[in-house]
Design goal:
This protein is of the alpha/beta class and 277 residues long. The protein is 38% helix and 13% strand. It has nine helices and eight strands.
Length: 277
């Protein structure tokens, strides 16, 4: 089963996407299930994981309503304020929905790089682990050392790094990123998404520009802890769905069939516990 483990939908009139402005012209429109469905069909992708793009409970409810009516949405990664006093109760309520598979604090956008280690957040993380929910870590390379502490505090919490922690592909500054990513991967539990790379690359990126990053991710985590995602429609800032699929076909060509199947869907199904459509 092929799975797109990372995609978004939004409707601008909902009003909670503060980062979405007309300056991001390719994204300044609504993106909804009927827009993605033909792309999934063309590439034989059976299902997706729909990931939050706004730090609001209202958007999580919106995504879950879409999952209720579109069977290809196999899982939803939502949001709640992990530092709130009632976060464990909110998490329990959200976890009651069968398609809610994880939560994503938008760590890259927070002023405090240590926000995920704040004592106020720890009960929420424990509640996530208790309910089998994953933590999608939307981070930059500077946050990777924080994951070492986080994983030791919460060994039962499922963690996946979004977009391989957004390495500086365009600038070529990969040595510290690679060192810290390998350190995080050494626990044998943390997972990583092969997604969101083209928006970190130079404007005229080539597959060869991505290969060192992809090779590092696959070597560090192994195919059974790596999952493919499109990051659509953010992907449209630097590429297209068709182009990204073709690029990753090239990048994964050196893997055997079982490893390719894991990255393309098997890892996501196991990690998130995705249900059939």
């Amino acid at each position: 089963m092929r799975i797109d483990a990372h995609q978004h939908f939004w409707r601008r009139d909902r009003g909670d996407y503060d980062w979405l402005t007309p300056a991001l012209a390719p994204l300044w429109q609504d993106f909804l299930p009927d827009d993605l469905a033909p792309l999934l069909s063309r590439h034989g992708i059976a299902g997706t994981v729909l990931v939050q793009a706004a730090p609001t409970i209202a958007e999580t409810d919106f995504m879950l309503s879409l999952a209720d009516t579109h069977s290809f949405i196999r899982g939803v990664v939502g949001w709640t304020d992990l530092a709130a006093a009632d976060a464990p109760a909110r998490i329990a309520a959200l976890a009651a929905h069968p398609r809610l598979v994880g939560l994503r604090p938008m760590l890259q956008d927070l002023a405090d790089d240590d926000a995920i280690l704040n004592p106020a957040v720890q009960p929420a993380l424990a509640a996530m682990a208790a309910h089998g929910l994953a933590l999608d870590a939307l981070i930059r390379p500077r946050h990777l050392p924080r994951l070492l502490t986080l994983r030791d505090r919460h060994p039962e919490l499922k963690i996946v790094i979004d977009h391989a922690a957004k390495p500086d592909i365009a600038g070529g500054n990969l040595s510290c990123w690679a060192r810290d990513l390998v350190a995080v991967a050494s626990d044998g539990r943390t997972h990583c998404k092969l997604s969101g790379l083209v928006t970190e690359a130079a404007v005229e990126w080539q597959v060869a520009d991505l290969k060192p990053v992809v090779d590092t991710v696959l070597s560090a985590f192994g195919p059974d802890r790596v999952m493919w995602g499109s990051d659509w429609p953010v992907l449209n800032l630097a590429s297209s769905y068709d182009h990204w699929v073709a690029a990753t076909e090239d990048l994964l060509a050196g893997l055997d069939a079982a490893s390719q199947a894991a990255v393309r869907g098997g890892t996501a199904v196991r990690f998130y516990g995705l249900e059939e459509g």
